[in-house]
Specification:
The chain has 146 residues and is an alpha+beta fold. The protein has five helices and four strands. Strand 2 and strand 3 form a beta hairpin.
């Protein structure tokens, strides 16, 4: 029997990081994203965010490529957001995203961090948070220069 643990903390932003995710309807959006994740046999553990970005903690099914999952999530949620009329200023997601593998021993801490996004961003900017996550993962921050 194969044993695979593929736990990811994913962050993606609205186009231009515009604050267009209306707090009144964000749970509807999270439900749509959760259903798409489940459709791909992955397991969403928590989805939360603010008006300009979303965090997802999930178990990735071994047969699903992360890039494919993200393409589906962004595409399906974008179509739903535009068709629903609940997010009239939404014009899409940024192409890029952050996906950070985490160990099972960090699962609860990441879950709590995602759960507390509204309070967290009252103090910390998305830019600072994103840089911290990238650096903590041991990655280089892309500056756009080659």
């Amino acid at each position: 029997m194969s044993y695979i643990s593929s736990l990811f903390h994913i962050v993606f932003t609205t186009h231009g990081r515009k604050p267009v995710i209306n707090n009144d309807y964000r749970n509807n959006l999270y439900a749509v994203i959760a259903e798409e994740i489940k459709t791909l046999r992955c397991k969403p553990l928590i989805i939360n965010g603010t008006q300009d970005h979303i965090h997802v903690l999930l178990h990735l099914h071994p047969s699903i490529a992360l890039a494919y999952l993200m393409r589906v999530i962004k595409s399906k949620s974008s179509v739903w957001m535009k068709a629903s009329g609940l997010f009239p200023l939404f014009d899409g997601w940024e192409k890029e995203y952050g996906a950070f593998s985490i160990s099972a021993s960090h699962r609860e801490a990441v879950y709590a961090y995602i759960l507390d996004q509204q309070n967290h961003h009252a103090i910390n900017s998305l830019e600072n948070e994103y840089h911290r996550l990238i650096m903590k993962a041991g990655l280089q921050i892309y500056s756009g220069d080659k």
